[in-house]
Amino acid sequence: MTQVTELQHVDGRPLTDDELAGLDAYWRAANYLSVGQIYLLDNPLLREPLAEEHVKPRLLGHWGTTPGLNLLYAHLNRVIRARELDALFVTGPGHGGPGLVANSYLEGTYSEVYPYIGSDEQGLQRLFRQFSFPGGIPSHVAPETPGSIHEGGELGYSLVHAYGAAFDNPDLLVVCVVGDGEAETGPLAASWHSTKFLDPARDGAVLPVLHLNGYKIANPTVLARIPDDELGALLRGYGYRPYLVAGDDPAEVHQLLAATLDRATDEIAEIQRAAREGGDTTRPEWPMIVLRTPKGWTGPKEVDGVPVEGTFRSHQVPLAATRTNPEHRAMLETWLRSYRPEELFDAEGALRPELRALAPTGERRMSATPHANGGLLLRDLELPDFRDYAVDVPSPGCATSEAMTELGRFLRDVVAANPSTFRVMGPDETASNRLGAVLEQTDRTWLGTTLPGDEHLAPDGRVMEVLSEHLCQGWLEGYLLTGRHGVFNCYEAFIHIVDSMLNQHAKWLKVTRDIPWRRPIASLNYLLSSHVWRQDHNGFSHQDPGFIDHVVNKKAEIVRVYLPPDTNTLLSVGDHCLRSRDYVNVVVAGKQPALTYLTMDEAIAHCTRGLGIWEWASNTDGEPDVVLACAGDIPTLETLAAADLLRTHLPELKVRVVNVVDLMRLQPDSEHPHGLSDREFDALFTSDKPVIFAYHGYPWLIHRLTYRRTNHANIHVRGYKEEGTTTTPFDMVMLNDLDRFHLVIDTIDRTPSLGVRAAGLRQRMVDARLAARLYTREHGEDDPAIAGWTWPGRAGGAAPEGDH
Amino acid sequence: MTQVTELQHVDGRPLTDDELAGLDAYWRAANYLSVGQIYLLDNPLLREPLAEEHVKPRLLGHWGTTPGLNLLYAHLNRVIRARELDALFVTGPGHGGPGLVANSYLEGTYSEVYPYIGSDEQGLQRLFRQFSFPGGIPSHVAPETPGSIHEGGELGYSLVHAYGAAFDNPDLLVVCVVGDGEAETGPLAASWHSTKFLDPARDGAVLPVLHLNGYKIANPTVLARIPDDELGALLRGYGYRPYLVAGDDPAEVHQLLAATLDRATDEIAEIQRAAREGGDTTRPEWPMIVLRTPKGWTGPKEVDGVPVEGTFRSHQVPLAATRTNPEHRAMLETWLRSYRPEELFDAEGALRPELRALAPTGERRMSATPHANGGLLLRDLELPDFRDYAVDVPSPGCATSEAMTELGRFLRDVVAANPSTFRVMGPDETASNRLGAVLEQTDRTWLGTTLPGDEHLAPDGRVMEVLSEHLCQGWLEGYLLTGRHGVFNCYEAFIHIVDSMLNQHAKWLKVTRDIPWRRPIASLNYLLSSHVWRQDHNGFSHQDPGFIDHVVNKKAEIVRVYLPPDTNTLLSVGDHCLRSRDYVNVVVAGKQPALTYLTMDEAIAHCTRGLGIWEWASNTDGEPDVVLACAGDIPTLETLAAADLLRTHLPELKVRVVNVVDLMRLQPDSEHPHGLSDREFDALFTSDKPVIFAYHGYPWLIHRLTYRRTNHANIHVRGYKEEGTTTTPFDMVMLNDLDRFHLVIDTIDRTPSLGVRAAGLRQRMVDARLAARLYTREHGEDDPAIAGWTWPGRAGGAAPEGDH
Ligand SMILES: Cc1ncc(C[n+]2csc(CCOP(=O)(O)OP(=O)(O)O)c2C)c(N)n1
Ligand SMILES: Cc1ncc(C[n+]2csc(CCOP(=O)(O)OP(=O)(O)O)c2C)c(N)n1
Ligand SMILES: [Mg+2]
Ligand SMILES: [Mg+2]
User: Fold this and answer.
1) How far is CA A292 from CA A7, A264, A614, in A?
2) Which of residues 697-716 of B touch A (CB under 8 A)?
3) DSSP state, B401?
4) Is residue A799's pLDDT more than 70?
5) CB contact under 8 A, B468 and A510
6) What is the DSSP letter of A388?
7) Helix extents (H) in A751-783
8) Nearest residue CA, atom 17 of ligand 1?
9) Which pTM value belongs to this model?
10) pLDDT tens-digit profile of B613-635?
């Protein structure tokens, strides 16, 4: 039994009457501008009675959440000025776009970046008209909104973004509004635990504000309908000290919120002092705020006989028929006038100076903080020369190495050279994905308790491991969006968990490309290992190469997919990705010991081209009879083994081996900036010869990328066709007809001249598959003659070992 | 301030010495069988000294979690017998497969379903050998495992599955082991709140057991490294009464766990009694257990000088080199013998009868409960005749209706006719997706507090709304897997949130098809509305039609995608989906008022064919000059408007309009069971005429489905190319070149004979696009002449209204 406090209240009335009046006026101004955006085409200061033509024909937007956002924003301005804080505002309920646009406009930032929207009546009219209007701005806190790193369209990621922004920003306060509906999502529910990964000495602070307005779209919210005790317990269980600010009387709430924000910022300052000066390394109990005010506060109380303010009905547009229904229009006018615009704006339509003075200035304005435009702060990484990490490749296909292990060494030194701008994220797989070398240089971030025997845990570790792909992704997004760099390593199959987060990030990048004041940020780099072909421990549930397909649906300018076949190519690709900007880079590479093919110089040339003929594996310099194409480490291995078989058993067959590292090269240049011209493509893949394409993922993707090519009808793709279980590596490729023997069979079947001549070889290949399967059933492992295959004519390499 | 209890301990030592000894022996037997599966090829009872050839060459599996699972399982058996419970075991750490297989074997179920694995020494040897062995069984708690509805491969869904199983199963106790690593995931973190959606009167009980073994793969877990107070607060905040069972002395832990399980099951019985007999409708505080025992308990304490038992190093295979390293092998032998197999199994190798008697019998065995093989319990839905919900279609394309509203009426009556076997899930969008009619019949499930003014909330509501797509999906999966039916309605864009859950469910279905004793279950039905083309309120972040692409990568036998163009087709498709088994059905349909085209009889014929020529929209019965194909409601509208334009301005052009409802019809019949034969395809789409295909989603998908067709080179697809914002419906289609004017332009550009002749019309179409855009910029809405278009020669329908 312990004595605990549930939700705490802060006593005290810190605001003078003037301060209170000022804050309230500022809030009214923001509310006025928000309602104006949702409803008005014209007459922005209500200088005339509101007429039909002043109202938008389509009313699109969300009012309900907005007064709460505006309230908090106004109060934060006071705190920022009083304490000279650098603050960033993350809006969970991003559908409250009008509120954030309003505040940015009140602070002057909006007119700075969009001079067309000035600080006068005309500017106001334009501000109103453009909102959710064709050719105007989106309804959400989108990339177009100054001060935003978070659109809040797909709910659930506000808090994880906030933490990502706070990492390595010791002087930043990130205030994060979490919708009580949003709080029901899985990613948000997991995000609270980020307290165990935030170092008070090195990182900034996050102040979560749970916006308990009680409702989501059409339902109450779970957290609004559990007793205070339970809510308090939950939030304390998450590691916070929660303060409740509740009420529906503005004057009361102003005092309470001001007192609570003072307390919270005091506590944060004290936590940081204790950690930074006092050397206190224990995990602090961070303050947070529960803001319980009515949804749609200050809006219409009742419409058409049903309550609206304080209910779910205020979520979108409380008055729906303001154009056609004069009564609704009159209510709208009353509502707008209730904010007393004449007290807020001067004759020109500019915010009165005494109100303007309530906002911070310059980069202290939350709408103008450079942290929300991370590209402004972005500095190139200090990169060691990746060539120094090259493995020796005496001749192709004879020696083995672990590609991820070598990349781990490179990343270790990237961490060392960039001690506060680069992080490695992963769901507890950094070591098992063989990136363990980074732990020679740094630890895993850990603010939980530690025990003797713990390894590599420290508050200031730079490897972030948590069993939540959502948190890994969200932290990294927040970190990148505020101008830093990083890598997310993950099992290939489970990266689908963040499909929808990737969507939103790719959309963000796409839109920012057309916003001149948004500066490029570092790319989002995925390092997918433990891929579909080597799930020896796990089996079918861990086999899914479809993330590539998902990513390729995003805008071509944004996405890059790399399938390096060996260690040196992985190093070259890795270096390239870390230097790039505004992309989503997906790199898929195995972690097991595997054959190496290219020296570093060859690897660089190959990666620069993105694909190319491997002359040493081909037996013709001229026109081939068949092209064996491959993309991915395992398909490359099987293709080379197939080429070996063909060269041995059908020496007269002219075989060309083409390896593809940069998958986007396959697309036409009209579709993707990396795309090959048709001329180049035809030269490599011929315009009439069979192409047997061994691909890492779902085979259809290759068709989707190449269907416009001259020779498409001759391209036969093998890949993963959703067949798998817990079995040996070679059995896996056989299950999907991607094995060397089947590639030989495919070659025979697709090369017109071979049909009859090669029937004997074909049959031997069928038998070889059966024998290989039988071997696994008897011995529980692959035939060493298969597993230990190396490119012939060379000293044999060690047989690749099993998975761990 | 309140007095609260943190993690509680239950005092009492309920077990007699004999009971304790029996339980411990049973536990040892399960542990022995688990280690045997991971390591042994032969010598299963250690009748000889352990030799190299007795050990598997590849050691693949996970030991760490297994002793905890086995401990709990043994104790549950006692409780089940004592209280005659029906229980289902859901294993979060599904990598503990050996434990569940072991228990199923000990209970005899395994040999019943796999007679090849008998209850004797040979059976034991086969049991051991097959595990994680080529041609054998997977390492996880897979579909192959009797008693499982949950593989636990991708972590995070155990608790939500458990709740799904408990709904409408008043006599079922679902015991759910949650890994402490798994508990870090977003979906799991959200799942705890399912207490607010479980009706103690109508539903069964879920007993969560948080398996606090302290570690995940290579790291400690968050929940293991926060103080007990904090953990207790968290779990109480989630709505539970948590009991701690902690220790590393088996005898002590046995007593504690037994006492705690007795308490928990007592409390559950009392909660249910109060609700069912006492009419207590308040949300109860459900008991749960925190089981804190060492990871890899009873395994090697130390290996090669480093601690293993009780650390992350026990996660997979504690002794890695048992084949090559005699010292490791000796340790393995000691470990195995520590369970004293000679006391557990008789001379034949069968479990001794006194131990066998400790397990329940028949369907009370958790490995044999029919709830884990839901198809056994599945009953057809009682379906009203969907034709009764038909809308009147006097002539094609002249009247409007809201397809989802009509479907809502049908679903309302499905709910009424199936009061305990059908549920509707959705993330707070059931009303906004226009399915509101179901609320005339039932309420939303809600155990939270209620306030005056609340609408349609009740503990026994059959509509489940929570702002978590993960919970909607997981509840429904659990519900279906235990033999019931349901529908998940969701915004199209945000269904990507559950991409990876869909993967796992589709994999489960695929595997069960090859397991004779698994019986078919009801299909997983997605109803995706608020689709990409009508995000009027929201914009770019809400626009993503890629879920279809994702689903289509799954096994063809499993997936079905329907794009009904109007109300009657939606009704027909909806009925069809609710009758189907073992599929994933994706239905995409708009919620706005839209034109109707087909009478119910026509709709049934069209949906049965899956696609077809719309004669009334075509102007030729013979060979066309161009085929206008369409799939999806908005593309269909634009295609028909384009056909109208072509017929008016190029009357001599022979136009055929083909509408596709069942997308899988486009694939070759060799690829998908619904696929059209090439002959049929060529007849519909011609073998040489241009096909202008207006498609709902990403255009590449149509190419991926049709690249093998004769006429593929002539298929020109328009669809969503990731261009969007908050704008009008027609502006959206224009942004993506899917509008009627552009389809006319495409027709002109692709029809060889038209180039010169139609240049004037082409230019008028370009101008029409500009004019349409300009209209939106000026008026904020679409030109009524465009928005109000109807199929000509008929009375004009009402202009479709805007989105809400
Ligand atoms: C993941 C996701 N699912 C569904 C929606 C649809 N949606 C938009 S707003 C909203 C309700 C949000 O409620 P809350 O977070 O409480 O915000 P507020 O009450 O402040 O508006 C929902 C469900 C969404 N935006 N994202
Ligand atoms: C979503 C997901 N991410 C990553 C993994 C890889 N993985 C497998 S087991 C495991 C650790 C699980 O820890 P816990 O839940 O505590 O289970 P236990 O300790 O009982 O083994 C991880 C991260 C996974 N299976 N699923
Ligand atoms: Mg809310
Ligand atoms: Mg664990």
Assistant:
1) 12, 17, 66
2) 698, 700-701, 703-704, 707, 712
3) E
4) no
5) no
6) G
7) 759-779
8) A179
9) 0.97
10) 999 999 999 999 999 999 999 99
